Amino acid sequence: MEEKIGNNAGSVWTVLNAAGGRKSLKEVKKLTKLTEKDLYAALGWLAREKKVVFFEEDEIFVALS
Predict the structure, then answer these.
(1) How many domains does the chain have?
(2) Can you give the pTM of this predicted structure?
(3) 19: domain range?
């Protein structure tokens, strides 16, 4: 399970990095094709490592830190 979350975190990071470092959660989910559960686990992993930050405008965004 830990390996899967780590691989998914790498996919999320790759998408954010290619996109200039910022995307909405909806966009990240669509581009990574992860389930909601897998996406949130991957984002938690990245957040724990202080690699992403979250902020809210009209919707929730995630950005590389």
Answers:
(1) 1
(2) 0.91
(3) 2-64
